[in-house]
Write a structure and sequence with these properties.
Rossmann fold, alpha/beta, about 400 residues, two-stranded antiparallel sheet, globular
């Protein structure tokens, strides 16, 4: 495995990380390794399957369906995409599961104020209670229907966010009108402040407004919106949301790396408990299946599995072999199977002793059991290095795609 791309954590930093995680997970403080490993395994499974339902709503013609497709990294003409058009195309709440993460569902709701969905009965008609948060879209000034909907959502204790769509069209029109004085940042600020002020005048307190273009989702306020959702979503829902995001920018890739890194200690601890078996030729006992699942998850999250790379090639027109050519780590494109993982464990065992002592001192569940500490540190190191490699290679693939779009 290639060396990690980031500076090695100091012992103090690693101790702090372990301490914070242990404080968050009370079940790990038990002295029974198998019991704790089973509890963590259950927690990881629940996190993987936790449902997240995102509702996209607003008046007709605001680009709701295009946003549903873009957030799922799908084109408007792909099989399974939401139907788009210049008039209202959604006649009832439409469910669109994420193609990679079926626990994440984007709902394309009919436009508020359409004949079958009057404003005063809208929330009841679309089964309001099943959604985790709402995104209210408008392609111009937010209308009275949007404001009344926001107030109703707020009264019921749900989160909502305003998205001003099609700002690329506004900028294009502005550029044609103001050829000498055109300033993109100033125009975006003007649009944003105008939206905020008009919403505040209507009684919406501290409205969260984001400017987006479904044609160029990674631009404008998209990362700002992600940061807001990351702060406001519950922990497990946040994890599901982050992993499901399209790999459009370096900030998104970094958010995914951070989210996955936080759970490595859990996977490592679980791998040396419950179903752990001795690895031939090594003084390590690990649940290889757990490690296989983790590494496959990393490939999927960063879009470097075979299917994702082929889809990206089809979408961008770049040959898949060219996308693969920028991937530096020889391990990232390998098939993840038992033999592959065991070979990595063998390499990792040699360097794991440097953190085994830390594991003994800072993970109560391991106590003074040297073999379990070595197993933990070996698998932890292996997953950390694989994650860093695949995150860095995802950046290389993104850079290649961005170069072709210039």
């Amino acid at each position: 495995m290639t060396s990690t791309k980031r500076p090695t954590e100091s012992n103090e930093e690693m101790k702090e990380d372990f301490a914070l995680n242990l404080e968050e997970e009370g079940e790990v403080k038990s002295s029974n390794l198998n019991k704790a490993a089973e509890a963590i395994k259950k927690s990881l499974k629940e996190m993987e399957n936790i449902p997240l339902n995102i509702a996209i709503t607003g008046e007709s013609g605001t680009g709701k369906s295009s946003f549903v497709n873009a957030i799922r990294s799908m084109g408007d003409e792909e099989e399974g995409s939401a139907a788009t058009g210049v008039v209202e195309t959604t006649e009832e709440p439409m469910r669109y599961p994420h193609p990679k993460y079926p626990n994440v569902t984007i709902w394309d709701l009919p436009g508020i104020g359409t004949p079958n969905f009057k404003a005063d009965r809208y929330l009841q008609s679309v089964k309001f209670s099943q959604y985790d948060f709402f995104i209210i879209m408008s392609s111009g000034r937010f209308k009275q229907n949007d404001i009344e909907l926001a107030k109703a959502i707020q009264a019921m204790g749900k989160k909502f966010y305003f998205v001003r769509s099609k700002v690329d069209s506004d900028l294009h029109a502005s550029k044609k009108r103001r050829k000498k004085t055109y300033n993109e940042e100033n125009i975006l600020n003007e649009i944003r402040q105008n939206c905020i002020q008009s919403l505040e005048k209507e009684g919406i307190s501290d409205p969260k407004v984001f400017l987006l273009s479904c044609m160029e989702l990674e631009k404008y306020d998209f990362n700002k919106m992600l940061d807001t959702l990351k702060k406001e979503l519950p922990k497990h829902k946040r994890h599901a949301f982050l992993l499901s995001l399209p790999n459009l920018s370096r900030p998104i890739l970094e958010k995914k790396r951070e989210a996955l890194k936080k759970d490595i200690w859990k996977r490592a601890l679980t791998s040396c408990g419950v179903a752990a078996v001795p690895i031939p030729g090594l003084c390590i006992a690990c649940d290889v299946g757990i490690l296989i699942d983790a590494m496959i998850d990393y490939q999927k999250a960063f879009g470097l599995d075979e299917q994702s790379l082929q889809q990206l090639a089809n979408k961008t027109g770049i040959d898949v072999s060219e996308l693969k050519s920028v991937i530096k780590s020889p391990l990232v494109l390998r098939e993840i199977n038992k033999e592959f993982v065991i070979s990595l464990l063998g390499r990792g065992a040699a360097g794991a002793l440097r953190v085994a002592e830390l594991a003994l001192n800072w993970i109560p569940i391991l106590g003074s059991i040297a073999a379990e500490a070595l197993s933990y540190s070996t698998t932890s190191q292996m997953l950390n290095e694989f994650l860093e490699d695949i995150a860095e290679d995802a950046v290389q693939v993104l850079n290649r795609v961005l170069q072709s779009s210039v």
